[in-house]
């Protein structure tokens, strides 16, 4: 009884091991074939513009608290990036 269960366990583990080895080699072969016949497109950098982006700053009144400044920055970020909290 114990001998038969050990044989079944060894055969099962050997089957899984062989399947995994086959899977690794198949994956490597697929990667090689994809790189050979379907190369990645060349990435080109966009042309650099000589113009500097315009940054506008506005004077902040002296009586504005830090919490109000943070709330303003969050509101601007939500507006610019289309986020909603």
Notes on the structure:
- It is built from 2 helices and no strands.
- By secondary structure, the protein is an all-alpha fold.
- It has a domain at 1-41.
- The N and C termini lie far apart (64 Å).
- The mean pLDDT is 86.
List keywords for this structure.
mainly alpha, 2 helices, single chain, 85 residues
Binned, the helix content reads 55-70%
- Tell me the number of helical segments per DSSP (H or I, 4 or more residues long): 2
Span of the ends, CA to CA:
64 Å
Q: Roughly how many Å is the radius of gyration?
A: 31 Å
Poorly predicted parts? none
How many E-type strands?
A: 0
Structural class: mainly alpha
| Proportion of residues in β-strands | under 5%
Give the overall shape. Answer: elongated
What is the mean predicted local confidence, pLDDT?
86
Order of helices and strands: HH
């Amino acid at each position: 009884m114990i001998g038969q269960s050990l044989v079944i366990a060894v055969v099962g583990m050997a089957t899984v091991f062989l399947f995994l080895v086959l899977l690794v080699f198949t994956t490597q072969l697929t990667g090689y074939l994809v790189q050979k016949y379907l190369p990645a497109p060349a990435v080109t950098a966009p042309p650099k513009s000589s113009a500097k982006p315009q940054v506008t700053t506005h004077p902040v009144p002296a009586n504005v608290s830090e919490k109000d400044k943070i709330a303003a920055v969050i509101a601007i970020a939500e507006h610019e990036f289309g986020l909603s909290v």
